[in-house]
Amino acid sequence: MSYESAKAQFADWGVDTDAAIKVLKDIPISIHCWQGDDVVGFENQTGTSGGGIQATGNHPGRARNPDELRADLEFAYAKIPGSHRLNLHAMYMDTDDTPDRDEIEYRHFAPWVDWARGIGIGLDFNPTFFAHKKADDNLTLAHPDKGIRDFWIEHGKRTRDIAAQMGAALGSPCINNIWVPDGFKDLPIDRMAARARLEASLDTMLAEAKSDMLDAVESKLFGIGVEACTVGSHEFYMGYAIRNKTLLCLDMGHFHPTENIADKLSAVALSLDELLLHVSRPMRWDSDHVIMLNDDILAMAHELVSGDLLGKTHIGLDFFDATISRTAAWVIGTRNMQKALLQALLKPWDRLRAAEDALDFTSRFVVTEELKDLPYGAVWSEFCARNGAPTGTELITELDTYQATVAGR
Ligand SMILES: C[C@H](O)[C@H](O)[C@@H](O)C(=O)CO
Ligand SMILES: [Mn+2]
């Protein structure tokens, strides 16, 4: 179907497709570096602790150094319409030095900033509280040993400094997202003590006010090896974020499998200035599958648009699948997020709200279902064409061709 006939069909519903395309173009998505190398990083030192997260698979083409990762990212960005961001973890430093986590400095990441400036993207950042011998007890900021807590507090402080410098250098605030794997494999005796230690460590880490960066905290239900208790649970961080005015990061893989994460957005947004999303696809657990254009993603996008939350929500991705092409994973996952947003932007909101406000649930239902038949694909193709991104078989050929060039790594 041509764009013009699709546009006319949406216009019959009172929906302006050109306006939706324009809004979508300006929604940046923070693409996570760690899909490109299976969450390995570029340090010369790691511990055994995986933090309870696990990339599985051995598809050829894993990026082995910063140059390979940047080349892969550049390819992916070119296939994703619009202008986006990169979400970098501290373990992805680009330096010949071997600083420990409590020794990292901005200069260890400066090549990333130069590169980001060169291709016109913003950066986000994360302290790395896993894959290190001082995290092998599955406790970092909540560790009973003050020496270990202090080590990680120093790491966190340094990432805040680095994030602030990245934000200033690129003229765009850098989100520094804190996720710690802390928890217990078996039932703890004193949850309160562990949570009090985590809170005190965070307070020390975040004490200094900073500009050009935003702090975010990410909760989790459980991870491998911490099945009995995660110290930084949802309730813990929701309270912390509200009290301390940080962003709250909601990761779609960090809740009970039957919980509706989309439903949480409007609930927490009333108490928070800004939110961060880690859009992911859990399968039975926090499996971090590449996101599909499924009901969960469509519901998230629906809530972001219906709740007018796009202005206060930073959209980040968090998945890592090593059984498929890593560049294809980035491209497909990010485009699926955009497709979901496009569908939400193409809804006749006034009509749907009017039906709901009038308690006319029959109309709400029938309109919702009829909307599913509209030609979203034609609008998506037009969006891609206007932004120089391929679709369909052309996209597949380009993904395959690039993968062939990296398969020998
Ligand atoms: C690598 C990320 O920091 C990590 O995936 C974190 O965001 C998470 O979701 C852990 O389960
Ligand atoms: Mn996450």
Automatic annotation (TrEMBL):
The protein's name in its UniProt record: L-rhamnose isomerase
Q: Name one GO cellular component term.
A: cytoplasm
* InterPro entries, A to Z: L-rhamnose_isomerase (IPR050337), Rhamnose_isomerase (IPR009308), Xyl_isomerase-like_sf (IPR036237)
Family the UniProt entry places it in: Belongs to the rhamnose isomerase family.
* A single BP term in Gene Ontology: rhamnose catabolic process
Show the taxonomic lineage: Bacteria, Pseudomonadati, Pseudomonadota, Alphaproteobacteria, Rhodobacterales
Q: Which residues bind Mn(2+)?
A: H254, D286, D288
Q: What PANTHER family does UniProt report for this protein, alphabetically?
A: L-RHAMNOSE ISOMERASE
